[in-house]
């Protein structure tokens, strides 16, 4: 028996913390994991680790995880060989497209797609051959407003300014809870120590949230805001900055600032106070404090992305950073300079080139809003979706109106899932193709290095042997591509392994062959603890992709949305506003099957302010019925002074008590799905992003 020490990053969330994993090879040749710890030598995460990383071994040994292709026969599942499975997919999809057209096949790619480099490099090798416009992903569940705003203002959806958290003197967070999420579109391991360091150097942390979250609890100031009305607060802040002469000139070329000033002239702090529930004096003082800081950054995340005015919010956040001189400045909001530069190697994107068939929702970057997926399956006519491919996703639990989506899935002619589990969505599939487990394949974080609070890079070697007969995710897509191309007579271009693609990208990147660093994949591999490439630096001016080569401060689409915001009706009598919440031990729906992550007190209850409970004669631990336009669920309620009056909170990703789900631990404490309440018609009208926060609900004793 021999022991080996491995170093790699955890890729289960965006923080990409460095790990030290000790394994032992037994006499029979098999391997076992002895320990998973934080890597103290990792310059980025500095030894930090959260419970999710330790659960990597639970994923590896989970008896419910699929280890070979499975074909459904009625309610039973039977193994099938890889080649037979590939041939079946090619036959069924080719036949459906021949009979009903290219768009009769839809694709949904889930959040883990960006955590697996084989999916990033090779999924389109197969999916691109289908040439369907019915492509969807988790992007339009939780982050599309980020990308659309950057596309409109900076010319590229990946030019996403990141908070320079290690150097700022004032951090304003709206709808983000990095202590639970480990950062989100802000790759920030060890965030608690970084926020404590901000305060220790005399800086200030302010959190705006309808719940006193874990991050809000450690802030210098917490401000309650009415769900869905963050834009009112942001408009009041921006208006105050203009009105009181608190703006600073930017070194960046900017178009349209006077147009912005005129457009928001009526949205004063006093006019917006009633909308957002924040006193006008608080709004004005917050603007003054932000502007007075030597450096400051405004950061908004899930709570402001997943609401009816998500794009408006992110536009206003960018403008607040811009007009205070904090955009593209140290201590403010800066774009990364990653070793693999997605901005340089991809097009800026496109928007609204086509629309969804039924509701006319706009595409972004070739994807339609996932809120339209169910209706595209259920609505008869030319172009109706009749087949679906899901990749590492569980949209029944993660997209709006999950019960409607279930109804739509039941009517499909064919469904393929690339997934590790028979879950709430994949139980409808005709065929499930499982890739190797996370520790059995290599990985490179092409996405999260681009969102990091420092410029870093690392290559993650496989820790465990690849099982005989198993395929990595990229090999599954190559097999599907070859089978489909042969079936329909396509000429398939040769492809390379993911690591070769990464090597080419790094060598042509900012630290590659033409730089003093001379970085290559081989050089990165020699540094198992990762490579620190330095703090974020101003670079936006030279990377702008707009036609004008200037920041477009007043995109017509966003300026026009101010009228919709001004006319928005408020919540009705007796209605409460539903929001979600994050937990450090959970990441969407798929981490509920690991005992070390779900042990302890249940975390899927509804949180409600005690005065709202008293008004409905409810008590702690009581089961309540929650109703929205689309459905109703029953859950246990808990009183919490951390909740703003009029607001209730339920985490998403639960609801495992559906028939046919083969996830034993998750099914034993199923909870209820918040997305049985969220409304596919409740959207950010600009981007089409689902509005999962600020959902009006009614609550009574069950």
Automatic annotation (TrEMBL):
The keyword Secreted does not apply. SUPFAM superfamilies: ADC-like (SSF50692), Formate dehydrogenase/DMSO reductase, domains 1-3 (SSF53706). Keywords: Iron, Iron-sulfur, Metal-binding. InterPro entries: Asp_de-COase-like_dom_sf (IPR009010), MoPterin_dinucl-bd_dom (IPR006657), Mopterin_OxRdtase (IPR006656), Mopterin_OxRdtase_4Fe-4S_dom (IPR006963), Prok_Mopterin_Oxidored (IPR050612). It comes from the Bacteria. SMART domains: Molybdop_Fe4S4. The keyword Protein biosynthesis does not apply. Residues 3-62 form the 4Fe-4S Mo/W bis-MGD-type domain. GO terms for molecular function: iron-sulfur cluster binding; metal ion binding; molybdopterin cofactor binding; oxidoreductase activity. Belongs to the prokaryotic molybdopterin-containing oxidoreductase family. This is Molybdopterin oxidoreductase family protein.
